[in-house]
Each structure stands twice: as C-alpha cells, then as structure tokens.
C-alpha cells in the first residue's frame, strides 16, 4: 500500500505474494484430544499467545495482552469470561506472572515440532497476537489454517491476515482496552466464535495454499 501511494513507485507493477502453507498438515484437530496432550482444562476458555522468549520480548506485546486480561477479569462479571486461561508457548515458566495475575497462566515451553504446535493451536478458542512490531506472522496464518480465530492490533501484516469480523478482529493499535473489548466480543458468543473458526480455515484455503502460491509465482515469470 505504501509503495502504491508513493511518488516514486505508484506507477510500478506491484504484486504481493504471501507465504504458502501446507494445508494438509495445518488443519483443525479435536479440541478435547489436543487439550489432553497438554494437560489443559477441557471446560475452560483458552486463549493462546506465543513468541520466542514468551512474555519477555516487548515487541510481541505480551504486557498489553496481560493488561487486557486484567480488564476482562475486573470489568466483566460474565462467568464465561472469568473462566479464561492464558496459554503461553516459547517460555518455560514465570513464577512472577503466576503470582501477580488473578487468572490461570499455563507455560508450555518452546515447541520444537510442528506436529505439537498444530495440536497446541487446536487447544485454543482464540489466538491473540498483540505485537507492537510484526511483518506477516506465520503463527496467525497457521492458526487460520487450524480453524482458530485471531485477534491482533490493526498494524503490520495482521491487517493482511485477519479479515475483520469474519476470521477475527483488529483492535486499535497498542490499546489494551480495545484489545480486551475485541476478546470479549468474540468470547461472549460461542456460535460466532465457531463460525469465525470455519471462515478462518476457508480464508487459509483461499489465500495461502501451496497450489495457489506457486501459481502466483508462475504467473509473474510468464508475464516477465
């Protein structure tokens, strides 16, 4: 978008090709089966967050997510919203966080195998990416492929991944209150959340399948 609007490049031929994803591998799996693997509560609402280093990298915005959780717990009395668990991957543990916050936080450590990561996505009701800086986060694409709606800020590559109010929501950049509002909106209606999960998978099939991506490259080579 910036290139198309620039004085220098607005007349250039500009094409965007995203990352491809193996949709035969990244696909929805039973929630109950996935939660057993990670010993996560089957009846709770699970929100997933992940980053290299977990909550320690400020660019990934874990502090904003934790603030949003605090707002949810404090402001909303709905029992379904109180029964939420945060699952963090990329970090082994944090006694400081577990004692500071009033909601359960599960640390599952670094996930080295894609198969385990696929199961981990499937444990979640919602995947949240509160990044301050990101390009086109592969975790958001993989979540879509696994049928998990995504919430993030309206910035960076998330704008290209999340279809607003169809496969997830885009909150106002770096505002914890807006992030909490988006999370609450999705969690308070299970039917809407399930429908968004179905639409997320469809979007992955439509935009990021290997078959579609390689054809985009072929078209460019042929035109050249």
How would you describe this structure to a colleague?
With 224 residues, this protein is α/β, with parallel strands linked by helices. Helix content is 45%, strand content 13%. The protein has eleven helices and six strands. It has a six-stranded parallel β-sheet, with helices on both faces. The protein starts with a helix and ends with a helix. The mean pLDDT is 92.
The main pleated sheet reads as: 6 strands, parallel
Structural class by helix and strand composition: alpha/beta
Q: Tell me the span between the first and last alpha carbons.
A: 22 Å
Strand order of the largest sheet: 3-2-1-4-5-6
Tell me the Rg in angstroms.
Answer: 18 Å
- Average pLDDT score: 92
Specify the number of helices: 11
Strand content: 5-15%
Oligomerization: single chain
Which of globular, elongated, flat, extended, rod-shaped describes the shape? globular
Range of helix content: 40-55%
